[in-house]
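Good day; I would like, with your permission, to put a structural problem before you. A protein sequence and the structure tokens that stand for its backbone fold form the material at issue. I would ask you to consider whether the tokens describe a fold that such a sequence might reasonably adopt. I set the record out below, with my sincere thanks for your time.
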Amino acid sequence: MKKLVGAALCVAAMVSFMSCNDKSSSGKAKGNEQVTLTVWESTNGPDEFIRQAGKIYSESHPNVTIKYVNVELGDAVGQIALDGPAGKGADIFAAPNDRLSSLVSGGHVLPTANPESIKNRALSACVRALTSDGVMYGYPVSAETYALFYNKALISEDQLPKTWAELAEWSKKFNSSHPGKYGFVMDIGSGYYTIVFTTTDGNRLFGPDGTDGKHTYLNSENSIKGMKFFQSLRGALNVPAADLDTATVDAAFQSGNAAMHITGLWNVVPFQNAGIDFGVAPLPSLPGENKPSASFSGTRAMFVSAYTDHPNEANDFAAFLMSDEMQKLRFDLTGTLPSINVKVDSPFVGGFLKQLEYAFPMPSIPEMATYWEAMNNASKNIWDGADVKAELDACDATVVSK
């Protein structure tokens, strides 16, 4: 993905979709019939986005009122399963892409209306993340991945390592000449980050499409090789796994005690507020490769409930949230990465967008629920010196049902 260019505001282009689903003939308000759409979203930014977007939308759609209700992201999937059939759920609700399988298998969401138009607007990583068995569901409103943050006071842009091996060597030299500081830090006990080291030669969790529930591919030859290399990084960051949790490594970079850090866009504002002059670049490449290593990508989407009485209006408003104007507004209010190619006022977005070219969506199959604890524990044990193959074999056995 190259440098973004601005596009004309497309609010007017987001028209109602008349053939979105089986309810389309009865789900369209007649004439000036007043429609209220209930939207579930989280607090601390997304709530204000829905309120402001709803007000703007209603100015051009005076018969539609947007009602915001606080339901946090992690609670929406369970709550729609209870409230939807009872007729008191949301018309539209926010949920992460890794819950897509549960939403689809439960019959809780409608397919995306006019999917080709939405696919043409959205980042490819977001489209992949919201597609199940060839069908797209939901409307992506933000994307996320992680990248390499670097403190410009400790390492210049032209010194940035292109490979993980170079990062390790640079860090060892830095550590020896800067007592109390670290060349790089990362949460080595989180499978969200350590998945990177399993991806050599296109190896992917649950297979190329993330849908193979019988095999994790975490104990494949490429994954074992990659995690052995991960274990070797202990020489450049000689700290036990127990002392490298997210809060600790974030604090190290935020206090100016780490030159490089693997984290996401959510830390931009805290690091800026701490007065750190930093940049963001794609991840280094793994041994034997010449491109940034693959990271997990996540997509936050607005889903249209299968229980709504107004599917056309709900689809139309959800699509409206992907317009240039609304994506800029969401970035300003939440600081999260837009889901479309739109220029926003930030010097950091480019690094994340470049990394997204090499990212792959977090799988959404049910087995993903058992991945996290198993991979987190395996990563910690491997970092602290455990046998790599044994740990990954155990992780695979825990996650999949043979």
The CA atoms of residues 147 and 382 lie 22 Å apart.
